[in-house]
Amino acid sequence: MIKKISVAELIPGMYIHDLNCGWMDHPFLTNSFAVEDEEKVAKIRAHGIREVYIDTEQGLDVTHAPTREEVQAELQQRMVAIATRQPEMPRQAALAEEAPRARKLHTEANRIVRHLLSDIRLGAQIELDKVEPLVETMVDSIFANQNALLPLAGLKQHDSYTFEHSVSVCALMVAFSRGLELPRETIREIAQGALLHDVGKARVPEAILNKPARLTEAEFAQMKNHVVQSIILLQHTPGISPTALQVAGQHHERYDGSGYPNGLQGDGISLYGQMAAIVDVYDAISSDRVYHKGMPPSEALKKLLEWSSHHFEPRLVHNFIRAIGIYPTGSLVRLESGRLAVVREQNEHDLLHPVVQVIYHGGQHHYLPPETIDLARSQDRVVGHEDFSKWNIDPRPWLSP
After folding, report:
1. d(Cα 273, Cα 211) in Å, to the nearest integer?
2. Are 114 and 181 in a shared domain?
3. Closest CA to 95 of 348, 299, 297, 326
4. Beta 15-18 vs 332-335: how paired, if at all?
């Protein structure tokens, strides 16, 4: 049986089924292993891990601990409660109107960030005048209709992850900021910091950055140093705003003080740094890497909610979930009818019933003629999230509106 326990309850003789943290938040070779001694327990605690899942069939039990199924059921109830408190959002442009611009913008953004990182590797300075027009256009697109650009964040190549992740984090941070009703100028500065938050990775050896296996302790330390390198690069960039610096410099800090590079805690982390930490983790754990399979977006949101008891400010996690929906645009969902559908748009007043495009029948294992359905006006409903790879469905034709 799989159970969730506090690390304070962890003792030698237990078997860890899941370390319950992002893959970049620990240096262990695997997420599952036996706890042989107190030294291993101390190492787990030293890396800021607060709760883990244990396998009671392979190690010692904690009788009062909740099962994985009980944890998931409680998280689902909390997700539904968050969705029903959806604030009213400004009216948006039609998806069909914004989609062509979003596709072109996404391609251009990835090209610009790729060249930016390449130039930094060669010793060039960041030139904001090459970045600011892109940032402004991304803000415009999200404000027009975020359902056009956000699904494209799911389209990543394994060997292009670093710069595609930066573009995704930028788009998600704009949507998050818009949901918080921050001033437009502040949102532009947040977007600037989000797009540049990982520029320090240009100073990490490519052999480490693209290593198709778990990093060693020494490599892990070099990877973590990318935040310091980002701060140095941005501090020497004329015109960079303090807000952008906070986004880039604090996106690996954690609310309980377990993050890096400065171990900041609580309100010692700026609002923008706290937001960036949430978005960075969400995009990282929902993206495929060379040796890391991303989880479905809805499952990633549940993880954020679970980790908000320690690592993230809970109200901000709730606001992020409301900003992108409990079934994010571009995610694959299973309907009560047995059909599979891609989420196309969020219903502003009803996040539990998005607009979807039905594409496949899960029971009969065949494609269906694509059909767009507003679940707020249908008898069908979402009963769970799905993984494109599980059904051998290529997501690319379906994630571009």
Report:
1. 27
2. yes
3. 348
4. unpaired
Q: When comparing pLDDT for 274 and 153, which is higher? A: 274
Note down the domain range covering 27: 2-66
Question: Is 349 in the same domain as 285?
Answer: no
C-alpha atoms less than 13 angstroms from C-alpha of 237 in its C-beta half-sphere: 28
Collapse the DSSP code of 167 into the 3-class scheme (helix H, G, I; strand E, B; otherwise coil) and give the result.
Answer: helix
Instruction: Let me know whether 308 and 220 are in one domain.
Output: yes
Task: Report the C-alpha gap between 170 and 239 in whole angstroms.
Answer: 19
| Secondary element (H or E) of residue 132 | helix 128-149
Q: Interhelix angle for 242-250 vs 271-285, to 10°?
A: 50
Start-to-end Cα distance in the chain = 42
Could you tell me if residue 109 is left (phi over 0), alpha (psi between -120 and 50 degrees) or otherwise beta?
alpha
Mean pLDDT of the chain: 89
pLDDT score at 23: 56
> Measured between alpha carbons, how far is residue 357 from residues 218, 330, 368 in Å?
46, 10, 10
Four-residue CA torsion sign, 302, 308, 312, 317: positive
SS3 call for 312: coil
At 44, list the tokens. 């787990």
pLDDT tens per residue, range 98-139: 988 888 998 899 899 989 999 999 999 998 998 999 999 999
197 in the same domain as 61:
no
Which residues are registered as beta bridge partners of 335?
382
Least confident of 26-35, 96-105, 262-271, 375-384: 26-35
pTM for this model (two decimals): 0.86
Average pLDDT over residues 386-401: 85
Mark whether 341 and 318 lie in a shared domain.
no
How is residue 49 written in tokens?
A: 């891990």
